[in-house]
Amino acid sequence: MRIGVVGATGAVGEEIVHVLRDRKVIVDELRLFASEKSAGKTRDTFLGDITLQTFSVEACKGLDVVFLAVSGSFSLTYAHAIIEATGAVVIDNSSAFRMDPNVPLVIPEINGHTAQGHKLIANPNCTTAIAAMALWPIHCRFGIASLIMSTYQAASGSGAEGMSELQQQTNSYVNKEQLQNKVFAYPLLFNVIPHIDVFLENGYTKEEMKVAWETRKIFGCPNMDISCTAVRIPTLRAHAEAITLETVLPVTCNGVYSSLESAIGVDIVDDPENRIYPMPLNASAKENVEVGRIRQSLVFGDHGIDLFVCGDQLLRGAALNAVLIAEFMEIGDYSRNAPLAPTRVFNLRPKEMKILLFSSIVSAILVAGVFITKK
Ligand SMILES: NC(=O)c1ccc[n+]([C@@H]2O[C@H](COP(=O)([O-])OP(=O)(O)OC[C@H]3O[C@@H](n4cnc5c(N)ncnc54)[C@H](OP(=O)(O)O)[C@@H]3O)[C@@H](O)[C@H]2O)c1
Q: Which CATH superfamily includes the segment(s) 2-96?
């Protein structure tokens, strides 16, 4: 594959290059693009030193796959232009096209088949992607009717600048200097900020609504009830998420364990008595997401589960997912890696299921009654 990475000096772009190396993707040519500020500098890569270029559509000619890791407005301006001029597949990490009905929003293990025939593919929001890996196997077996999520998101979720702002604040604290903040609304060190992305009219932030919108699109469940509170915390890398689920079918912890044990991309890390549970320090630089603290919900009873998920948002939530999409499309056989699928269509809530069951039993009794009377 001849590959271009646009935004190659950023948090996601750098990670894409590492993933290409670590997964031993056969890369015949690698072109790295960044802004004018970085052009001319070199990057030490698995293919040797590569000079960073200023991006232009023209400079993408001859590439098979172009990863965009810049910003939403950049992708809106250039994604289609690249495809038209070069015929390359564009995998976009920004939120620009995620909710476009003509653009597939893809996690290969869940809905890879939706990428078939498309040149522009959207990579999901990092918080959404991490949760989806843990939730999909549970959804396939028990059906998720509703979910409530609170997140604990790392500084690197705001890119390379977010990460360096937290590091600078740590240095300032050690040197007894005043903490400066530009990327985050307040100093992040020793703080917790319930504000990621812009606030919307309904009081939620855009980051919180992305979790709802994108999970519904990826799972193909437009009616799933989802509420999220997204919070920035002073970790450098890997997001954590506390999730409460209400399921359509009765669910048990053992059922969840067995669904997750056989799932791809998930590690069960759940032995609280020995102080083993998912944490950002352990989940960082790890491809799989960690799931633990699995327990029966005190609110939803036998239709509910609480769990804690932790995953490297730069990897699973961005770079790894993007490279997996490219690999999946390169293989081209969309039936070979058939992803796990729900055993049934879960579009009913538990109460509706009970009503349906009750009315089916009543109908069966009535039909049987009519039949017996006729005899
Ligand atoms: N960070 C995450 O956890 C995460 C996760 C999932 C998705 N995303 C999304 O991925 C995208 C990139 O995020 P990031 O966190 O990697 O951002 P970042 O660390 O701020 O990096 C931005 C990159 O874009 C480059 N750039 C800026 N203007 C450019 C231009 N005109 N032409 C070419 N390159 C240009 C920058 O190059 P210079 O260094 O030369 O300025 C840098 O390499 C965003 O859309 C973000 O929402 C981020």
A: NAD(P)-binding Rossmann-like Domain (3.40.50.720)
CATH number of 127-312: 3.30.360.10
8 A C-beta contact, residue 8 and residue 52: yes
> Measured from the CB, is residue 159 less than 6 Å from ligand 1?
yes
Give pLDDT, residue 234: 98
**239 labelled catalytic:** yes
Centroid of ligand 1 to alpha carbon of 14 (angstroms): 10
> Residue ranges of the domains in the chain?
2-96, 127-312
Secondary structure percentages of the chain, helix, strand, coil, to 5: 40, 25, 40
Mutate to test the pocket of ligand 1, among 67, 70, 233 (most ligand atoms within 8 A of CB): 70
Confidence band of 369 (pLDDT split at 50, 70, 90): confident
- The string of pLDDT tens digits covering residues 201-243 is 999 999 999 999 999 999 999 999 999 999 999 999 999 999 9
Return the percentage of the chain with pLDDT > 70, whole number. Answer: 93
pTM: 0.91
How far apart CA 25 and CA 29 sit, in angstroms, is: 11
> Which of ligand 1's atoms lies nearest the C-alpha of 15?
16
Q: Is 11 in the pocket of ligand 1 (CB under 6 A)?
A: yes
Closest CA to 119 of 91, 147, 152, 138: 91
Atom of ligand 1 nearest to the CA of 71: 45
- For the Cβ of 304 lying below 6 angstroms from any atom of ligand 1, the answer is no
In eight-state DSSP terms, residue 199 is B
Catalytic site residue 118? no
